[in-house]
Amino acid sequence: MTAQTDVFLVEIGTEELPPKALKTLAQAFSDGIVAGLRDAQLSFGAVKWYGAPRRLAVQIEGLQTQQANTVVERKGPAKKAAFDASGQPSKALEGFARGLGIGVNELIEIDTDKGIWMAYNVQQIGQSAVALLPDIVNQSLAKLPIPKRMRWGSSDVEFVRPVHWVLMLLGNHIIPATVLGHAASNTTRGHRFHAPSALVIAHPHDYASTLRTQGFVEADFELRAAKIRQQVEQVAQQAGGEAVIEDALLDEVTALNEWPVALVGDFDEQFLSVPAEALISAMAGHQKYFHMLDTNGKLMAKFITVSNIQSTNPHAVRSGNERVIRPRLADAKFFWDQDRKHPLDDLLPRLKTVVFQQKLGTLYDKVERLACLAVKIGRPLGVDAALCERAARLSKCDLMSEMVGEFPELQGVMGRYYATAQNEHPSVAEAIDAQYQPRFAGDALPQSAVAQALAIADKIDTITGIYGVGQLPTGDKDPFALRRAALGCLRIMIENNLDLDLRLLIQYGLESHPQVESSDILINDIYDFMVGRLRAYYADQGISAEQFEAVRVCRPAHPIDFAKRIEAIKAFSQMDGAASLSAANKRISNLLKKVEGTVPHTIDEHLFSEPAETALWHALDALRETVSNQIAGRDYQAAMASLSTIRGEVDAFFDDVMVMSDDLAVRNNRLALLNQIYQLFLQVADISRL
Questions:
Q1: Given the DSSP bridges, would you call strands 242-244 and 198-200 parallel, antiparallel or unpaired?
Q2: Dihedral sign computed on CA atoms, order 125, 126, 129, 132
Q3: Same domain flag for 155 and 116
Q4: pLDDT tens-place string over residues 90-130
Q5: Nearest of 588, 563, 561 to residue 681 by alpha carbon
Q6: Residue 161 is part of which domain span?
Q7: Do 449 and 357 share a domain, yes or no?
């Protein structure tokens, strides 16, 4: 019999929710309800979440309205304890039956691995969705990622913002429930100004359309974001420019508006003398405005604001926003003018007042370390040592500037502008900015050698220092962003083809920290931590976990060497004989693990007695020099291609030769032959892991 289904809708109406958290809260609310339904074994269809400034909602299609009935087995006493010597029921058995409300004769026997036991199958009637949903909703709300909940009025209820209404429907029926102190109903509310009165939702399918047509609310977050994007692009084009729409800002603006209306405003062109990044930070960070570029890609003296009201006097809205942005831009210009009155060098001593990490000293101490570390890293890259040192000494000075004090996201960017203004070498100015790259996944990498040396030095210093004092990342806690720094450091080396020894860099970093005692164990631990970040990096490129592990266990010191091996293993895995050779290497590995003591390595041809082992030895000897040269030249793909040519001889060896011969000398000779093959492959990767 097909289970009955219906459409479920829940909406929590609140004061304006935190815009940066809205999307996360809405998705988490939906995920929590879905998890609750699965735990309750209620089937369902499509799930749709809604999120707007004053509401979180979830709509679920095809929700099973009643749990299926289930049979639950209740186990009583063992049969040997259930009856006395005369076959009469024991008190234990009678008590078990009485507790179930049945007679002893209704019990059954079940055969278990521990013997025969008395039992009874109880039919458990499934609960209705109406009875289960209130608790499912409440549990989901209780688990929302809200750092600090608030209370309002005299109520003990806590939530991220005060709650004003709750809507809960299953089909066209209201679910009787109390959620966050409010009795559920079938009413919602529209736009705070355009449609403040209650709106009746007769059926969940009417929810979004009723709010849109009668309430001046677009509840669908994604549709609202698309509408904002379309409007912003349209008004920008009409104003003769192109809008720049960052995803994070678009999400925030979407979370601030229920009924968005985009408008273009102007500001005084004198402010264009300030670096564009500072003006953009002022517009986006403070006012949530989108900026515009002209046909030459230059910032225009215009902005786009998104109003949460369809005003009858848009000119007044525009003028109000223009008045608000002017002092923000004036502040940015003031900071720009003030900061340029003194050179960056003057700010260096002030870094002594800022603690980098309690055990590792101040930012000034970090700069001193970077000055030495960047020079060491830059040396094999052929970088001018004086430029590396100069870039390092100026690298953190802009953190003490007025501009970065107001706009922290401009660290490095403003340092580049200030260094350029005081006629520093272009590579020094670039390095001050690029030291923080990559700032996020997919971000650009430092391009000049000075910038690369400084960026690597900055990340290595942080990783080795923080790791060295025992502040390892745990779970989702990584306050110094060591994981991001590790991957960024490796990306710089791999994608810019920088031939640097990672272990040596780690050693340099540890040696620069007098508070940290360097050791081979610590170097290896940090190496493993950093290289571990490449697992997800290569997974995104289609490299399997087995392929990655085959290279990782070889622990290549140079990241570009690691990358070349990955490429070789990827190509090898696509060869016809890859599976056979991988299986053979796995077999060899297992045989070698059984050897007690030192694994044999020396081969005596006179001990060969089977044609297959002689053929394998000659095939291996014939390509040994070629493969060694290919490996020395890091042409790992060619090396793997050469090694794959002995597939036939390897297969024949295992078909025809008994490796573990009773003759110890013969056995060791055969193991030595296999070991040489295994070690030759291992110079590229451990293909036994594929």
A1: unpaired
A2: positive
A3: no
A4: 888 889 988 888 888 888 888 888 888 889 888 778 899 99
A5: 588
A6: 5-67+128-214
A7: yes
